[in-house]
Amino acid sequence: MAEVSAKLVKELRDKSGAGFMECKKALVDAGGDLAAAEVALRKRGVAIAQKKSGRAANEGVVGSYIHAGAKLGVLVEVNCESDFVARTDDFQQLVKDIAMQIAAADPQYITREQVPAEIVDKERQIQRDRALQEGKPAAVVDRIVDGRMGKFYEEIVLVDQPFVKDPSTTIASLLQTTIARLGENMAIRRFQRFKVGEDS
Question: I need a surface site. Which of 4, 16, 19, 60 has the fewest CB within 10 A?
Fold first, then answer.
């Protein structure tokens, strides 16, 4: 069994937010490879989050973010399963981070499922026409369109967006990591972004 230094365990903890023993085990299993250990932790976090996703999340908090100068603000409701978890620093930080994300990245929807079908169909047609006009071979047009639709979702769907504080992760991953760490199902229920002079 490979020995891993406390410094390496701390580095993985800082990156992943997982517990000390979990980080140590992931590093030992990965033979001290930090990147591989981080991937293993993410996969484990996703598995834990999926197991908990069917449970009711009726507690939580409404968080807010007001940008410097008070011209831009966000209200967001994030749910969890218990009032105990809702009061933890970890959960409160998640809500703050999500509110800041909404202020910075201006998403229109929380999940892909909320994007109206006509908007998706219209964008898919635009990207198909664009690919064909660029002379792309018909055989690869669908793959190109799928790739561009991924970028489209990143712009308008909150959970698909790269996290503004760490673009190497998404809001969905941030949520899953917190679910794995705190052991409760969580969901972003609704949000409203206010900008002075703009209609909502």
Answer: 19
